[in-house]
Amino acid sequence: MVLGVWCNAMRKYRNFPMAFMVAFGVVSCGHSYAAAVVQSDIARISMMPDLPEPYDMRNWDMASRQLYKMIFNPHARGPFLPLIKILRDPRDQAIGFTMPAYATKSESFSAQALTNMGAVWGATLVGRNMASGPINYVRLLNQFFDPDMDHGIFGNGAHNASPQSTAWYTVFPDMAAMAISDRYPAERTLAKMCRDTAQSWADAIPHFQLANGHYDFNYTGFDFSTMRPVYNGIWREPNMAAGLAWLEYVAWRRWHDPEFLKSAKACLQFLTDLPRGYNPSWEVMTPFGALAAVRINAETGTHYPVQKFIHWCFSYYRARPSWGVELGNWAGQDVDGLIGAVNKTPGATWGQRVRSYMDTKGKVRHCSPWRPWGRGGYPFFMETATQLWALAPVARYDQRYAKALGKWILNAANASRLFYGKFHPASRQSDPGWSSGEALISYEGLKYRRDNPHQPLIATGDNKTFLDPGYTGYSHQPSATNYALYGRVYMGILGAIVKKTNVRGILRLNLCATDTSAPADYPTYMFYNPYHQAKAIMTDVGKAKLNIYNTITGTFIIRDISGKAAISVPADSAVVVVYTPADGVVSYQSHQTLVNGRVVDFRHGSSARQ
Q1: Of the candidates 439, 471, 443, the residue with the CA atom closest to the CA atom of residue 457
Q2: Which of 135, 262, 405, 412 is the most interior residue, by most CB within 10 Å?
Q3: Which is nearest to 257 in space by CA: 189, 179, 203?
Q4: Which CATH architecture fits 2-30+519-608?
Q5: What's the predicted TM-score (pTM) here?
Q6: Based on the number of CB atoms within 10 Å of its own CB, is 368 exposed (0-12), middle (13-18) or buried (19 or more)?
Q7: CATH assignment of 60-491?
Q8: Hey, is 405 helix, strand or coil?
C-alpha cells in the first residue's frame, strides 16, 4: 500500500524524484528489488586522484572532427600540409592513400595500417562516413590485405603482412580492420577479407597448443609459411593471445562459425592459466583480451577471470618491463592514467637508473636509452587511446568495474591533453611553433625527467633527435618533427566516448561507441562522480519518451521522460544508465534483464532476483 502511494506520487511529480531515486537506489514501481552491484577496486586506479588537477578537459568530440577534416583534405595548404596523398592508377582511379607517420616537410609519405586504419576508424567514431563521397577510404584499406598467407591477413604494410617478425604489427591491423568492417557492412570485399583473416588465425591457433593440451603464446610471432610460432630470441609478445581472443570472438558474433568461438576460448584459456603476477602485456592488445573475457562471460555464461585480466591492464608489464600506467604529478600536472614507459622494472626502486632487465628465460636484456631516461616516465597517446577503446565497453557488460573505469577515464582523458603542443609553452616542446597543427596533431609522447630540474617535462617523440642524441634510431633530418599521426589519429576514440556535462569533473561516457559486433543496444552511458557529495547531471534524452534504467541498482530510476532529465550520481560512485523505450516490455533470462528483447543488464537477471 505504501509503495503504491509512493509510486503514484513519483509519477505525478516526475521532475523531483529523479535525483532522489538514483541517489537512494529506490526501485521502479511494479518491479522486484535487486541487489546493487558491489564495485571492484583496481589497486593502481585507487591511487589516482578522484579529480585530477589542474582539471582542463578538452572538447574531444570537436577537436576530433577538426582533426579529420584537416588530415583527409588532400588540398590543404600550410606548414606540413597536406597530410594525405591519394594513390591513383593510370586511369586516375584511387587505389590507396598514404599518410606520414610524423608531420614532415619532406615527401616521405608511407602507407601504414596503424596510421591509415586508425584515421578511418577514428573519423568513423565521430560520425564521419568514410565510405561516401568522391573517395571511399574504407574500400582503400584493402591495400593492407595480404592474400599470400593461406586465406590472407592484414598487415601494417601495403599487401605485406609479416606476423613472424612481430605479432602486434599484424594482429592489431587485423583487429582495426574488423572494427571498421563492422561499421560498414555494405563493403563486402572488406567483410570477406576480415572473415578470411579470422579463419587464417583460427587455423594458426592450434599450432600454439602443447602436447598436454594447454596453449603457449610466449612467442614473438607466427610464420604462416611453416605454420609454426616464432621466437626471435629478443622479446616475446604473449598478449597476442589477448588480441586474437577479441578478434575471434567478435568474428564469431558476426558470422557464428563455431571454430571462431573455439579459437577465442583457446586464447582466453592461455591467459587464464598464466599466474596473476605474470602480466603478458607487450603492446596494446591486453585490454582487448579483457573485453573479450567480459563479453563472453556476460553473453554465454562462462567464468573467465576478468578481475585478473583487468588488473593486468593497470599493472606493470612483465613481458615488457618498465611499462605500465603512470601515476603522479609532473611539473605541476597530474598525468595519472596515461600509458607507456614508467621506468619501473620488477625488483627495481624508483631511485635506480633502469638500463637492463631480465627476460622470461632469465637472460639479461638492455633497454633502449630513450625509454628509461633518468627517473621519470614516457607515456604515449596511442597506447592510452587504444586502452580506452577496449575498456570503456567493459562497464556495459560488467558494471562491477564502473567506478574504477570511470575514475581512470576521467584521469586519462584529462591528462591526454598534455600530448598536444597547445597545452605547453614553447620551452616544453621539441617542435614548437606549428600554429595550425599544435591543437590537433599531438606529439607522440610526453617525457618526464626527474634528473633535469630545468626541463623536467617535455612533449616529444621517438622520431627526432632531442633528449638522447646518442640513440641512433632518431632522425637527424632538419625536416623531421615529433608530431605523430602514427597513433594520434586515434583521437576519435576520445571524441566518441568522452563528453563533458554541466558538472565540472563529471563526464558522460558512451559505453557503446567503440564496441564491435555487439548485441543490439539502447544508448548506454556511465557517469562517475569524483566528489564527496551527490551531484545532479542534466542530460538531454531526446524528444521521444523513454525510461532510464540504472544497471548498478538494477532498477528503473526515471520513467516516461523526454527532453531534459536530471540524473543524480551518488558521492564517490558511478551510475550506468540505459535509455529504453517508455513502452518497453521487461523480461528476464538467466542473469540478464531485457527490454523488448534487447539486453540492458547482464547481471540483474532472473537468477539475481530469486
Answers
A1: 443
A2: 405
A3: 203
A4: Sandwich (2.60)
A5: 0.90
A6: middle
A7: 1.50.10
A8: helix
CATH fold match for the domains 2-30+519-608 and 60-491: no
Residue 14 has pLDDT above 50, yes or no: no
Q: What is the mean pLDDT of residues 80-99?
A: 93
Q: Are 204 and 151 in contact, with CB atoms under 8 Å apart?
A: no
All structural domains of the chain with their residue ranges: 2-30+519-608, 60-491
- The rounded distance, in Å, linking the Cα atoms of 452 and 125 is 40
Q: What number of H helices and E strands is found in the chain?
A: 16, 26
Give yes or no for a contact between 519 and 555, defined as CB atoms under 8 angstroms apart.
no
Q: How far is CA 267 from CA 29, 174, 247, 275, 313, in A?
A: 44, 16, 10, 15, 17
| CB-count exposure of residue 457 (10 Å: 0-12, 13-18, 19+) | buried
pLDDT single digits (tens) 374-428 = 456 889 999 999 999 999 999 999 999 999 999 999 999 999 999 999 999 998 8
Instruction: State whether residue 263 is helix, strand or coil.
Output: helix
Residue 564: which H helix or E strand, with range?
Answer: strand 564-569
Residue pLDDT, tens place only, 525-557: 999 999 999 999 999 999 999 999 999 999 999
Length of the chain: 610
Closest Cα partner for 418 from 429, 404, 407, 434?
Answer: 429
